Structures are given as C-alpha cells and as structure tokens.
Amino acid sequence: MTTATTTPADSAADHIDPAALVASIVPVQTRSERATSFDPADFGTPTGREVNWKLSPIDRLAPLFVDQAGPTGVMQVEVHAPAELEQLRLGHGDAPRGEHFRPEDLPSAIAWSQEAEAPLLRIPADVELTEPVVVRLTGTGGLAHAHVVVEAQPHSRGTVVLRHEGTAQHAQNVEIIVRDGADLTVVSVQNWDDDAIHASAHQARVDRDAKFTHIVVSFGGGVVRVNPSLELSGAGAEGRMYGLSFSDAGQHLESQVYLHHKGPHTVGDVLYKGALQGQGARSVWIGDVLIGPYATGTDSYEANRNLVLTDGARADSIPNLEIETGDIQGAGHASATGRFDDEQLFYLQARGIDEYEARRLVVLGFLSEIVQRIGIPELETELTAAIERELADGAAA
User: Fold this and answer.
1) At 340, is the pLDDT very low, low, confident or very high (cuts 50, 70, 90)?
2) Displacement of CA 247 from its chain's centroid (Å)
3) How many Cβ atoms sit within 10 Å of the Cβ of residue 365?
4) Which SS3 state, helix, strand or coil, does residue 189 take?
5) Bond prior to 57 in cis (omega within 30° of 0)
6) Structure-model confidence comparison of residues 279 and 360, the more confident one
7) 3-state secondary structure 329-373
8) DSSP 94-132
C-alpha cells in the first residue's frame, strides 16, 4: 500500500474558501458594497452586464469610458452669485476636495483624474444667501471633464443651481458637503441639445442637524445619467431628493439614487417623477435606501412615479430598501408606472374639455408636484413652460 504525503503548500492550494469563491462569481448587488477608487485603471470598461450599467446604453456612453484629456474650452462656465459666496480652485489633495467623494465607476474616476483644478463654491458660516447661485454650463462640442465642490459651512443657508445647455460629451462629478446646522439646496437642470451625452455623479454628506435638498431636472440630451448619492451622517440630519424628467423619442434619461441613513434620528424623502412620449423614449430609475445599524429613530420613504404617454416608450423603475436596525420610526418604498387614468380624462371631457387639453392638464398636475418644490419662482415658471412645449411637440409629432 502506498501512503500519500500532503505538503503545506498542497493543502493550501486544495483549500477553497466558499465565501471568497462566491464573491468572485456573484456580482455586487448592494449599493453600499460597490468598490470605489480614484484610479480609472481600477475599473474595467463597462460591458452592460454590471449591475450599475445593465440598463444603460453602453454604446452611446462609450466616449466617456476613454481616459484621455478633452480639448480645452468645451464647457463655457458663467457663475452668477451673491458677493458673499467664496470661489476657489482646488487641486488634488486640497481640502475639502475628496473629503467625502469616492468615484464608483469609470467615468467618475476619469473626471476626477482629468480635472486638475476643481472649482469650489463655498457658502461661509452663518451666512444666508438672499439669491441663488446660478452656474450656467454651456457645451460647445467635444469631450469635457469636471469635478465641482459645493460646501455649506456651519449654519449657512443657500441654493445652488447648475444649468447644463448646448452639446458635449460630459463626465462630471459634484461633491457636496453640508456642515452642522446648514441648510442647502442644489438643483441640477439638464437642458442639453439632442446629441449631448452627460454622465454625472453627485455625492453629498449631511452633518449634524443639517438639511439638504437635491433636485434633478432632465429634459434635454441624448443620454443623461445623473446619479445622486446622499449620506445622512450626523444626528438629526435631513435629506430630500426629488427628480423630474420628460423623455422624448430616442432619449435615455437615467438616475440611480442612493440614500444612506448613517446617523441617528435622520429623515429622508425621495420622490422622482417622469413622463415619456415617442418611439424609443426611455427612462431608468433605480432607488437604493440603506438604513445603517446606528441610524436609530430614522424616518425614510422613497417613491418613483412614471406616466407613459405614447406607445413605444419604456420606463424602468427599481426601488430597493435595506434596513440594518429594528429601531426606526418608519421606512417604505413604492413605484408605479402607467398610462393616463381614463377616469380623470372622462371627468374632464365630460365637462367640455377636449382630449388634448384634458391630457395636458393631467400631465401638468402630475409633474408640477416636483416643480413646486424647487422654491425658485423664475425657474418654476420656466420648467412649467418647458413641459408645455414637450406636450405640444408630442401632439404635433
């Protein structure tokens, strides 16, 4: 009889860790477990099989997957701001750049590395801005990268509006820090030309007793992918995330929303609404809420509603909720996608309103809930007019 001898090296090679094997085969599903890196080389080129890319048009976004500098002057920037606003430039390693932001995908990591100097918009401590800060970004064509830092220092208050127009292939990061007791609103409006491509990662941290409202409005652009991530890190922090989109034929409008309740007694509210019309109109909404183990006393809710106006349009909506503590006030999520309510139309038409006008009133009523939360009368009026134009264009098509 022959006796086999096993060396330590053989034993180690034969031993397989089941957990490690599963981790190497099963893709990451939970938003909080995604890998982050400032180095683009750590991210593979998306194939469309990844959980965070599976509903995105990879072929149309491909220009943003190349780690190369774009030509200068592609994005023309105009800042209209009250005198109290501080504006600085931050290189890599200059605080507060990178204090909270961690790239989660390839375009974000490329934007971080390619933006040598990031603009900082800072509201000083105890200052209340009487007018919104308006940053107008106009694309003139070509590849462009950006990393923008917005900081509201302790007990400050203000609103920052980012307006995107023209055309570009734009990879963008927006890093937002809301210090103790501050109250900040950031509105990102995408009103690009039809051929624009825009992938943007917004990451915000809200500290103790601070309030933050984040609003995404997407009307224009061929492909617009704005992914906001909000961490309620301090006790008593409040975060509200709202979105409005109107997708036409051939447009892809997407938002992957992440709300992380990290501190105790935090409050979160997420509501995104979208309308779609035309052949190939597409919207994607993925909402992830994580209530962490120390987020006791949390109150959180997320919802997505979509109104499909014509045949050939498609809305994907995926809400997710993860709770790691049993001591909460409440948590929930909801999603609904459908066509016009026939009863609403019948009610309006029975009172002498023609079908087009009835449909217009229903859509305006549906979307105005988000418009009215912006809090800037001029912008609210502009967006209502934009919805009217979208409906008129759809009726004429």
Assistant:
1) confident
2) 16
3) 10
4) strand
5) no
6) 279
7) CEEEEEEEEECCCHHHHHHHHCCCCCHHHHHHHHHHHHHHHHHCC
8) -TTTTSS----SHHHHHHHHH-SSEEEEEE-TT-B-SS-
Q: Are 84 and 127 in contact (CB under 8 A)?
A: yes
Give the model's pLDDT for residue 296: 97
**What is the tens place of the pLDDT at every residue in 189-207?**
999 999 999 999 999 999 9
Quick: pLDDT tens for 291-335.
999 999 999 999 999 999 999 999 999 999 999 999 999 999 999
- Cβ contacts of 82 within 8 Å, gap of 6 or more: 129, 130, 131, 133
Residues linked to residue 122 through DSSP beta bridges, in sequence order: 86, 151
Q: DSSP for 219-246, please give it.
A: EE-SEEEEEEEEEE-STT-EEEEEEEEE
In the numeric block, the tokens 């549906």 are attached to 366
pLDDT at 7 over 50: no
CA gap 142, 70 in Å, rounded? 7
Spatial CA neighbour of 178 closest among 202, 157, 201:
157
Report the distance separating Cα 397 and Cα 392, nearest Å: 9
Tell which phi-psi region holds residue 98, choosing left (phi > 0), alpha (psi between -120 and 50) or beta.
Answer: left
